Amino acid sequence: MPSVLIVDDLLSIHEMLEAVIQPTGFSTAFATDGEKALARYKAEKFDVVLADIDMKPTDGITLLKQVKLYDPAAVVIIMTAYASTESAIQALKFGAFDYLQKPFRVDELIATLKRGLELRQFQAARAVAAPARHAATTTDRLVGESPANRKLVSQIKKLAAARNPVLLQGEAGTGKNTVAEILHAAGDTPDQPLIRLDCALSSEADLRAGLLGQNGAGGDWVRQAKGGTLLLQHLQALALPLQAELVSVLRNTMHSFRLVCTTTVDLEKLVEEGRFHDELFYRVAALPVLLPALRERAEDIPALIKFFTGRTTNPFFDASLVEFTPDALAVMHAYHWPGNLAELHQVVSQLAATSDARVITSRQLPLRLHELNDWPTLAAYLAGQQQQYFDRVMHACRGDKARAAKVLGVDEAKFG
């Protein structure tokens, strides 16, 4: 029988909750403060913890932190009597499954407990299958051995075993959709649908019908994602009124699918500026991941070139045999790649598919990559025109002294 640990300093609340919870199939146990609740949870490990936020000496938020530290998979539901949602948002920030505002409806309480139990049972099933699932998680599409990419690969492998929502942040073209596909494929049901929704391209009418539906139940896209993954792209583009309605949808439905959101901006900053719904942020950002820009992992460019050419078709020869000369690679390393991986993929694939020779030189690269071609030679630089050339190089490198030194082929210390 599933179990609930009720934590409240009022015995009348214990009696009331026991009366409404037990008939629904849950067993109940009680604690009158956070300290006693933590000791009991460690001894018995309940399926769900239902805790009041306002208790002494150990309040609900402190209990939440302690329980999550002891058991990261713990399902904790916070009860609050405050009219404001500020305390509830704080609870979500520290890992609460959900919150209930007193006085709450019995049907709302039971529905929330059942959603929490579903998550707990899902986590238990994943724990049993963890070794096989970990082996099945493939990050082959995340190419490169740079420290930034190795860190990303490590994060994704860990996230593959989690059910929590994932927020993928990064500039356009950094591979957020690829990571979302990897996470979906690594789930328990990769044959289930991956439903993609671009919040920047969908009309308000479509979003209301397909995403929000009616009465917080979610629309067609949400129902189609059941058992699979719901990918919300460019979440920052969702209008504020729709963000508030999405909170209600996620409260009711998020346990039934994996939620992955992507953004090209700092959502937390938007929250501070009042331009993004705070509760929505903490619901979708349980596991935030920042994808590095290509300029932060330029040493991966040769490996990425090989990866992209291996997936290109050329009518004259095997495109995987295409090679880029050292001068071409130097230009590509110096370029700032505003379009990141997507832009590199476009450049490499087009050259590999259309070239009538296996060797690609710098002259064949798109003109925009040659922003450094009119720079001085090292000899001219050392001959006495340092400041003039240094200024040009620094401007093109956007003030990055290390990059400017690399382009000119000198030690950074020479710049003073």
Task: Summarize this entry quickly.
The chain is an alpha/beta fold and 416 residues long.
Care to describe what's here?
The chain is of the alpha/beta class and 416 residues long. It folds into three domains: 126 residues, Response regulator (Rossmann fold, 3-Layer(aba) Sandwich), CATH 3.40.50; 157 residues, Rossmann fold (3-Layer(aba) Sandwich), CATH 3.40.50.300; 121 residues, Orthogonal Bundle (Helicase, Ruva Protein, domain 3), CATH 1.10.8. 46% of the residues lie in helices and 12% in strands. It has 19 helices and twelve strands. The protein has a five-stranded parallel sheet, with helices on both faces. Strands 7-8-9-6-10 form a five-stranded parallel sheet. A two-stranded parallel ribbon has the order 11-12. Helix 9 packs parallel to helix 11 and helix 18 packs across helix 19. About 3% of the residues have low confidence.
